[in-house]
Amino acid sequence: MAALAGVSTGTASKALNGRGALRPETRQRVQQAAEQLGFVANAAARSLQTGRTYTVGMITTDSIGRFSIPLLIGAEDALGAGQMSVFLCDARDDPIREQYYLRTLLSRKVDGIIVTGRRTQARAPIGVGLPVPVVYAFISSADPRDCSVVPDEIDGARRAVQHLLAVGRRRIAHVTGPEHHHSATVRARATAETLAAEGLQPAAPTLYGEWSEAWGRQAAGILLSTGADVDAVFCGSDQIARGLVEGMQAAGRSVPADVAVVGFDNWDVMVDGCRPALTSIDMDLEGIGRSAAELLLATINGNPVHGRQTRPCRLVPRASTAV
Amino acid sequence: MAALAGVSTGTASKALNGRGALRPETRQRVQQAAEQLGFVANAAARSLQTGRTYTVGMITTDSIGRFSIPLLIGAEDALGAGQMSVFLCDARDDPIREQYYLRTLLSRKVDGIIVTGRRTQARAPIGVGLPVPVVYAFISSADPRDCSVVPDEIDGARRAVQHLLAVGRRRIAHVTGPEHHHSATVRARATAETLAAEGLQPAAPTLYGEWSEAWGRQAAGILLSTGADVDAVFCGSDQIARGLVEGMQAAGRSVPADVAVVGFDNWDVMVDGCRPALTSIDMDLEGIGRSAAELLLATINGNPVHGRQTRPCRLVPRASTAV
DNA sequence: ATGAAAGCGCTAACAT
DNA sequence: ATGTTAGCGCTTTCAT
C-alpha cells in the first residue's frame, strides 16, 4: 500500500493517522491508495505498539437481557464517539465463567471493563489489583473505592408515591418482589418513608412476592379480600403492576377511577400492553450505561473517579393514574 | 515470567500452549510461574504472529433486542467451546453504521462475521469479496451463495394450524402483522395452504395490522363484529395473540372453550402473562445462533457451507388450546 | 529437551 | 517533508 502511494511505511502511517508533518498532497495520495486497496490497519499490530486496544469489555453477571441491553446501548453510545468498541461477555451468573471472561478480557488487553448485572445490590469486586480500570453499572461493587453507577431507587419510589399523592390519593399500598431482593426492600422502605413524611400510613402492609404478573393478580385479590381501603397501589415492577391492574378489573374495580396504579421499570411492552396504559418509573438504564462508560473513559485517561454514583429516576405518567 | 521459570521465552511459549517436546517438569515449572505472576499471554501479539484472533464479530442490523439476544447466546455457546469470543455491534438499522462496524471488525481481523437482524427477509449482502467468512443468522442474504440460517416459518405456521386441527377446531382465522412484512405474508400464506391441504377455508380473510397487543384486541372486535364463525385463531405474534385473547374475553368469549388461540415467538413474558397461558410457536433462536456459529467455524476451518439453511420450529402447547 | 533468532504489521523516534 | 530503523510480545523454525 505504501508502495502504491510511493512512500515509506512510516510516512503512510503518519498520513493515515493524521500525525507528523506531511504535504497535504502526499497525505491525500496515501489515503487514495488505501481506499483503492481496501486497506485497513491491523489493529493487533497497532495495539502491540501503542499498548491501547480501543476496546472495553462488558461483563454481565446475569444473563443478558432486559437490563443489560439498554446499558450496553448507552455504553456503546458513549464509547462509539471515541472510536472504541465493546466486547460483550455473558457470565450467566456463574463465577467460574465470570473469571474466565475476565482472563479473556485481560489477555485481550482491553482498555477497561464495565461490569453489569440484573440486580442493583452490591456485589463482591470482580477482581483486585486489576491492571485495567473497572466501572460497575446498575449493580455496585461492595468496595466503596470502586466506581459504580446505580439508579437512585429511593428517588424512584419517592417520585411514584408523590405522584399518587399529587393526583389526590391517600390510601396507598405497595406490592413488590421477593423480600430477599435488594430492590424490593429498598423501594418498600422508601415508599413507607415518603408516606410517613406526609403523615400517612400505608393502606396495607407491604406485599412481597415474585416479579411476575401472576403475583400482581394474586396481590390484587389479597388486597381486596382483606378489605383494605385502597385508592392507589405502587408496584415494584411493571409486570406486577400489570397483573394487579388485571386483578382489580376482574374484581370489578376501575383503574384509575377506583384504584390508581404505578409500576416500575417503564418496560415498553408492559406499560403499553396494559389497559389503561401504565404510569411507571424509568431508571434511565441507557443513561446509566452512558455514564458508566464516560467514567471509565475518564479513568482510562487518567482522571479516575471513585465511589458510588447514583442517578435519578423519572416518572412517566400514563392513563393508569390519570385524574 | 520465562525468567522466573528459568527458561527462554520460546520454551515458555511451548509450555503454556502444550506444544513442542518438553520435560513434564519444565512444563509444570512454567505454568507455576505464570500462575504466580498472573501472567496472561497478550492476545494482540499472538494474533500478529498466528494471523488468527479467535474472535468473531456479530453485527445486528436492527437494534439489539428480543431476537438478537438469544441468537447471541446461541452463538456464544458454540464459539465458547472453541475459546472464541464475540464482538457485538449494533448497527441500529443504519447502513453507514453498518459499514463502519464492518471496517472496525475487519481492522480487528476477526476470524469471521455473523450478521443478524430483526426481520427474516433477505437482505443485500453486507459486503462482497470480504477477506473473512460471513454467515447470516435469522435474516438471510439475497445472494444465494452466502450462508444463511433461518427459521422455517412455513413449518411454524403449519404446526400451529395442524395443532388447532388436532384439538378439533375447523373454523380457523389468522391475524398477523403488517402486510408489507415478510414474516407476516409468509406465515399467512403457509396458514392458508395448510388449511387448503385439509380441504378447509379460512374462517375469515387474513387480518393484517401491527405487531402489537392493541391490534390483537382490535382484531378480536373485528372478527366478532363481522359475525365470522370462528373457533380458533392463529396469530402472527404472541403480542397479537395476547391482545386477541383479551379482546375475546372482553366480549364474553371463553378461551379456549369458544376460541382456541396460538401465538408465534414463544416469548416468555407474553405466553406466561396471558390468561390462559398461550400456546405458541418457538423458532429456536438460540439454535439458529448456535447453528450459524457452527457453520461459521466450519468455514473458518476450510469447510465452507453455502446457501440458505432452514431450521424447523417447535410448537409449545399451553392452556390457550387445551382440549 | 531447550535456546537463539527471525519476523508478524505497525508506530515513533531519529536521521536525513 | 520523508525515509530508516528499532522494537511492541509473541510463535516458530532451526540449531544445539
UniProtKB/TrEMBL annotation, chains A, B:
It comes from the Bacteria. One of its GO terms (molecular function) is DNA-binding transcription factor activity. Residues 1-50 form the HTH lacI-type domain. Keywords: DNA-binding, Transcription, Transcription regulation. This is LacI family transcriptional regulator. It comes from Actinoplanes lutulentus.
